Amino acid sequence: MVTIYPLLYKLKEKYPHAEILFITFSINKGFLEHNTAVVKIMYVRLTTNIFHIVQQLISLLIKVRKAKIDLVINFETRNNMAALFSFLTGAPKRIGLFNRYEKLLYHSAVFNDTSKHITQLYSSLTQEIDRSIEFQYCDFIGRMGREKENVERKLDELNIKTFFCVHPGTSNNFRGKRYKISYLAELCLLLIRRYHIAIVYTGSKHDARFIEGMMDLIPEKKLVFNFAGSLGIGEFIELVRKGSLFISNDTGPMHIAASLGINSVVFFGPTSPNRYGPLNKNALIFYKNKPCSPCVGVDYVNHPCRLGFDCMEFPPQLVFRRITEVFNYDQST
Q1: Is the peptide bond before 316 cis (omega within 30 degrees of 0)?
Q2: 10 Å Cβ neighbour count for 49?
Q3: Beta-carbon count within 10 A of 55 CB
Q4: What is the number of alpha carbons within 13 Å of residue 313 lying toward its C-beta?
Q5: Cα–Cα dist 124/37, whole Å
Q6: Do residues 129 and 116 make contact, with C-beta atoms less than 8 angstroms apart?
Q7: Interatomic CA distance for residues 211 and 228, integer angstroms
């Protein structure tokens, strides 16, 4: 979603009179509302109930076919249902990525080359209608006025002036991408004692609980804050914008930090930075490039790990040392 976001603006620039309709899962609600290029958003509730899935798709298809869509771009990389849905819209032109047989459902099909970065693939889809469209991060200015004020007020109330933002969670579909909580707590403690700077934890409301457990491992209670579950997406973006450093696993928020030009530390293991890594030059990436990596989403499957996710074993002392070497915070703090 984060990497698709700027391409929607690019499309609107090229076709200013076009109306962009976006279809996504309801768990993404609140994000695209800030994108002024999008006219309408339709949401699908994520469920494993086949009856509800079919019911939603039929209802959605009726609405889309009534809208008489001229062009469908399917950004899903591995989703046969999305490819079929694109076909059933009846749009006179359909563009999408294909792995095996999905190309039969599109007028223009782009091979899902796993050696390419995800932004290159997404750009190639839009280039099927205009070759001049190229990917470029955007800074999420949008409609952030109120969110910015809310974040500034929250920081003032807690007397937080300068801080590092830590996003320890991932989506629930593959928690193996998470850097160890004990390691992350130790890393945060090392940063606090070196720079005497606040640590602000972010995440969903489901992350709040394990973040509290991680905070219990840090003696300097006055310098750690848990914002998980208390911020809307716009507020989260404004918080990241104000931070001096962003630490996370392979998640969408790392691309938000990259878009804003924030110094970043990102941990990769089950996924590859060659495919999903941030594109900003001031990103410090940790990746072992083990023979079994990547193992997420390969051939449509998240493979079980028999090695205890050894690929995510980055000693906190090593990470801390690299942060001090790459980012000079001694002078700024």
Answers
A1: no
A2: 10
A3: 12
A4: 6
A5: 19
A6: no
A7: 8
The total of other beta-carbon atoms located within 10 Å of residue 50's CB is 8
For 269-293, letters b (16+ CB in 10 Å) and e give: bbbbbebbbbebeebbebbeeeeeb
What residue type is 105 in one-letter code?
Answer: L
Neighbour-count burial of 26, counting CB atoms closer than 10 A to its CB (0-12 exposed, 13-18 middle, 19+ buried): exposed
- Tell me, yes or no, whether 312 and 281 share the same domain: yes
pTM above 0.70, yes or no: yes
Omega within 30 of 0 (cis) for the link into 291: no
DSSP at 301: B
Ordered per-residue pLDDT tens for the chain, 333 residues: 999 999 999 999 999 999 999 999 998 898 999 899 999 999 999 888 889 888 999 999 999 999 999 999 999 988 888 999 999 999 999 999 998 889 999 999 999 998 899 999 999 999 999 999 999 998 887 667 889 999 999 999 999 999 999 999 887 667 788 999 999 999 999 999 999 999 999 999 889 989 999 999 999 999 999 999 999 999 999 999 999 999 999 999 999 999 999 999 999 999 999 999 999 999 999 999 998 888 876 766 677 788 888 999 999 999 999 999 999 887 555
Residues 111, 154 share a domain? no
- For residue 242 the two structure tokens come to 């104000």
The length of the chain in residues reads: 333
On whether both 77 and 173 belong to a single domain, the answer is no
Closest by Cα among 36, 128, 32, 125 to 76: 125
What residues form DSSP beta bridges with 74?
96
CA-closest candidate to residue 9, choices 134, 145, 144? 134
Looking up residue 26, the CATH number of its domain turns out to be 3.40.50.2000
